[in-house]
Write a structure and sequence with these properties.
The protein has 134 residues and is an alpha/beta fold. 51% of the residues lie in helices and 10% in strands. β4, α7 and β5 form a beta-alpha-beta unit.
């Protein structure tokens, strides 16, 4: 018996959310909202960063679906702070990697440097294209 992908949860980073939005695939996130987790720092970046302008669709999305936005729990913040100290990784990526690592979930990420860091820390990754195919 095949396992349905909807049973799995995924952590999404800012780059993947932006690319999904740019490809007009936000409806897919709404359909799969039970399997999507957006770290608070990622939500803040896509919703309130002055350089990210997607006709405010991302801002509206994270406001409309606050149940998808997750705070750190257990030792995730400690992992985030450890990752954040590493060269070349910013807040939102560090938060997404920390959550994916501690929760043992797949990370949907497109930033090459952050994807490499995540994989070096044992985190399974997908590109946004692979995520939308699933």
């Amino acid at each position: 018996m095949a396992v349905q992908r909807e049973l799995f949860q995924y952590i999404l980073d800012a780059s993947s959310l932006i690319n999904i939005d740019r490809d007009n695939r936000m409806n897919l996130l709404r359909k799969r909202k039970g399997s999507v987790i957006i770290p608070q720092k990622v939500a803040d970046e896509v919703a309130f960063h002055p350089l990210i302008r997607s006709d405010d669709r991302l801002r509206k999305f994270v406001i409309k679906y606050p149940e998808l936005v997750a705070q750190f729990k257990n030792n995730e913040e400690e992992e985030y702070l450890r990752l954040r100290r590493q060269h070349g990784i910013h807040d939102a990526d560090a938060a997404a990697i920390a959550m994916a690592k501690r929760r043992q979930l797949t990370l949907v990420i497109d930033d090459k440097k952050a994807k490499e860091k995540a994989e070096n820390h044992g985190v399974e990754t997908l590109t946004w294209q692979d995520f939308v195919k699933g």
